[in-house]
Write a structure and sequence with these properties.
Layout: E1 16-20, H1 24-30, H2 35-55, E2 60-67, H3 75-98, E3 101-106, H4 114-127, E4 133-141, H5 143-160, H6 170-175, E5 187-190, E6 209-212, H7 222-233, H8 243-250
Parallel strand pairs: 1-2, 1-5, 2-4, 3-4, 5-6
């Protein structure tokens, strides 16, 4: 049986993949289950996806775990999601350690329950030496929050005389975002059939390839990731240049 991995050019693996893990609720509803069980199954999907990403050498995976707007969901669902973060981050720590994956987070963590923060701190500590890959959880994250915060930080520095307003350029702005230490995503995957970005990494995906699939996140796995990577590799990334320029650069 052929394996999709054989169609992947390992020299052109996307370095950073960002994922919007959508469709957990619909997956659960379809099966007559509580929505929280969809999220729980989402952890298994994430586990499989990370394993597959490691197989092909993806260095960064950023997953939209909880948005600043998700606090508006029913109280029980918010609680279930926070409990899941506490429980599964701790449970997955040994796997992350053995695969050399470092855990990091972006977002305003100050509002997270203590148990979730403790699990995250534990996992970050245990995985800190991982050099194979980085898993970034976007938690209480949204682009508008992040961009507003960067603007405030820069305005403060300008007001203090640390920088001049005219010093602010795209690079400096990027350095004030939560993702300052990471390369921009090459590929953004959204599962669950919706085609929107939902306030996720808006600045960082300026030149990312966007990939939407109908699969609900709990059903997503190795083959689905490989299909997305194969499609990514078949696209021509032009970064504002012409196709002829890109082709000339490749010879
Ligand atoms: C969107 O599906 C999914 C979320 C809001 C949460 C995703 C979180 C997880 C998979 C758990 C992750 C935990 C860790 C520790 C990484 P939805 O609920 O909006 O689905 P629907 O559109 O079908 O209702």
């Amino acid at each position: 049986m052929s394996d999709l991995i054989d169609q992947i050019d390992k020299t052109k693996t996307p370095k950073h993949i960002a994922i919007i893990m959508d469709g957990n609720g619909r997956w659960a509803k379809q099966k007559g289950l509580d929505r929280s069980l969809g999220h729980k199954e989402g952890i298994t999907a994430l586990h499989k996806t990370l394993e597959a990403a490691n197989e092909v050498g993806v260095k960064y995976v950023t997953v939209y775990t909880f948005s600043t707007e998700n606090w508006n969901r029913p109280k029980e669902e918010v609680e279930a999601l926070m409990n899941l973060v506490s429980y599964s981050v701790r449970l997955e720590t040994p796997t992350l350690v053995s695969s050399g994956t470092r855990l990091e987070c972006i977002g305003d963590l100050s509002r997270l329950p203590k148990a979730a923060l403790e699990s995250i701190e534990y996992c970050k500590r245990e995985t800190a030496k991982g050099t194979a890959a980085t898993l970034i959880l976007a938690l209480n994250y949204s682009s508008r929050w992040e961009i507003t915060k960067a603007a405030q930080d820069l305005a403060r520095k300008a007001a203090n005389g640390e920088i001049r307003p005219e010093d602010i350029d795209a690079d400096m702005f990027s350095q004030h975002l939560a993702t300052a230490n990471y390369p921009e995503p090459d590929l953004l995957i959204r599962t669950g059939g919706e085609q929107r970005i939902s306030n996720y990494l808006l600045w960082q995906i300026s030149y990312s390839e966007l990939y939407f699939c109908d699969t609900y996140w709990p059903d997503f796995g190795r083959d689905d990731l490989f299909k997305a990577i194969i499609e990514y590799q078949n696209r021509e990334r032009r970064f504002g240049k012409t196709s002829a320029q890109i082709q000339a650069e490749q010879v």
